[in-house]
Write a structure and sequence with these properties.
The chain has 311 residues and is of the alpha+beta class. The protein has three domains: 6-86, Rossmann fold; 95-112 and 179-299, D-amino Acid Aminotransferase, Chain A, domain 1 (2-Layer Sandwich); 116-176, Dna Ligase, domain 1 (2-Layer Sandwich). It has helices spanning 18-34, 49-55, 73-81, 90-97, 99-108, 122-132, 158-165, 211-215, 230-246, 282-288, 293-302; strands spanning 6-11, 38-43, 59-62, 116-119, 136-139, 150-152, 172-176, 180-190, 195-196, 200-203, 221-223, 250-260, 265-271. A hairpin with a 4-residue loop joins strand 8 and strand 9. The longest helix is centred in the N-terminal third of the chain and has 17 residues, at 18-34.
């Protein structure tokens, strides 16, 4: 392991996913310390940018999730400060955080993603129902961890879905609901060197992989590697690498996929700062590939870079 210098672990933040980020950051910090890295926790929700500059970190691990941490804002600050950081740069981070913009790029690249409708009112959601059919998914396009997400099975649930999602933002994403198997695929590297790790299948109670089943309960079952044919595995992984490269991602990300009953994969979204909690999926996939949690953390810090100002 090369000398990584003074490493900051940025965590916490001010997004709706703060509680998850606190867990991710603590896990990364402890893993880096176990490997002898000079790691330091830094809560961006409680400390200022001036404090960040004064720390003189040689590089940082971004363990922030959601707005102002995963959306390009923090990445831009780090570029200005000239501090190498983990994960994708400003552009890829901001695109992936916007699920509507992500869909536009996926469609432009002819990658399969569920049909969608942008809604700003309850009336718009009824229009979405006419176009997409039921069931459909309604969610705020700039949140993660299924926050504000509602599956609409009957028309009478549209009002509830609207009220839930609009508490997060005014413009909503209505999406065709794909019935089938839920998969997620970590991707690492950059450009031609980007490669997918083993696919994970998520089998949640009643098919409901919500915040509780993601981070709190222990009832969700994970199959890694997912039980898929070699041909289908390769197809899904290739789609995910293409999606990763389409938005200009690098370092690492995790792509969420639904596999319908005809074995057609559908890309849902790209997570550019995946969770690193005890329930998280990238560490699980990396372990199936022979890489421990601590080794994964060190690897990601070793790949930290600035994307605009090369250091």
């Amino acid at each position: 392991m090369k000398n990584l210098g003074k490493v900051g672990v940025l965590y916490g933040g001010i997004s709706a996913e703060r509680s998850v980020s606190l867990q991710s950051g603590q896990g990364v910090y402890e893993a880096l310390k176990s490997k002898g890295v000079d790691a330091h926790l830094f809560d961006t929700g409680e400390r200022s940018l001036a404090d960040l500059a004064e720390q003189k970190f040689d590089r940082v691990f971004i363990a922030l999730h959601g707005r102002f941490g995963e959306d390009g804002c923090t990445q831009g600050v780090l570029e200005l400060l000239g501090i190498p950081y983990t994960g994708p740069g400003v552009m890829a981070s901001s695109i992936a955080m916007d699920k509507i913009m992500t869909k536009r790029i996926l469609l432009e690249k002819n990658l399969p993603t569920p049909r969608y409708y942008v809604a700003r009112s309850e009336e718009d959601l009824h229009m979405a129902e006419e176009q997409l059919g039921l069931p459909m998914i309604v969610k705020p396009p700039h949140e993660g961890s299924t926050l504000g997400l509602k599956k609409v099975n009957v028309s009478q649930e549209i009002s509830e879905a609207f009220e839930l999602s609009k508490t997060y933002e005014s413009e909503l994403l209505a999406e065709q609901c794909i019935i089938g198997r839920e998969l997620t695929v970590p991707v690492m590297g950059k450009g031609a060197d980007a490669h997918a790790l083993p696919i994970i299948e998520i089998i949640a109670p009643d098919g409901n992989y919500d915040f509780n089943n993601k981070y709190i309960a222990n009832d969700t079952v994970y199959e890694c590697p997912a039980k898929l044919s070699p041909e289908l595995t390769a197809k899904i992984q290739e789609y995910c690498v293409q999606a990763y490269n389409a938005i200009g991602a690098e370092g690492w990300s995790r792509i969420d996929v639904m596999l319908d009953k005809n074995n057609q994969p559908w890309i849902l979204e790209i997570n550019t700062s995946p969770g690193m909690t005890s329930h998280s999926l990238v560490p699980m996939s990396a372990k199936a590939n022979g890489m421990s949690y601590a080794d994964l953390c060190v690897y990601l810090v070793e790949t930290a870079s600035t994307k605009v100002f090369k250091k």
